[in-house]
């Protein structure tokens, strides 16, 4: 699912379509959202939307990506625990935005039976964040702060999977205390062996 198709002729009309999709999804929910409704709200023809986007999910994904300004880069202060907590807390705050999170949750659900949307979510959003996390984990491994045999991708899934689970599947709050608990608990098993730590300090 690529970004808006290049033959669009009016950026103003395209932005109106995106805003209409975001507003309507908030008002009626993703299941009741339709291309017809988006077109009526935006004041454009249905065929115009289909020339620019293949589906309502594609419109909504463009809307989310234009709304969320999540920096994929990680801080690197030399303190991995502090850095990962800072980034995960920032991501959790954005995911918790009540104006956009319902849309994201709807797209996550839709992606389970729409392979094109699933691929687009990964390639255009989630994959960038996961890659940045894995890079920061490798940096921590080189600094001796994480076991060298730990798979960075698996560590990313371990840390962020817990946060996603709470945000997407429970009614509990994924707040800073929850993020800190995830990282602290996981790091107990990710820390390098004590003898390696002693050897570096000698």
From TrEMBL:
InterPro entries: Homeodomain-like_sf, HTH-type_TetR-like_transc_reg, HTH_TetR, Tet_transcr_reg_TetR-rel_C_sf, TetR_C
SUPFAM superfamilies with a match to the protein in the record: Homeodomain-like, Tetracyclin repressor-like, C-terminal domain
Span of the signal peptide: none
Gene3D superfamilies: Homeodomain-like, Tetracycline Repressor, domain 2
Sorted UniProt keywords: DNA-binding, Transcription, Transcription regulation
DNA-binding feature ranges: 34-53
Residues of the HTH tetR-type domain: 11-71
PROSITE patterns, A to Z: HTH_TETR_2
Claim: Transcription is one of the keywords in the record: yes
Record keyword DNA-binding present: yes
One Pfam family this sequence matches: TetR_C_11
Domain of life, per lineage: Bacteria
PANTHER family registered for this protein in UniProt: HTH-TYPE TRANSCRIPTIONAL REGULATOR RUTR (PTHR30055), TETR-FAMILY TRANSCRIPTIONAL REGULATOR (PTHR30055:SF148)
Protein name according to UniProt: TetR/AcrR family transcriptional regulator
Species assigned in the record: Actinomadura fibrosa
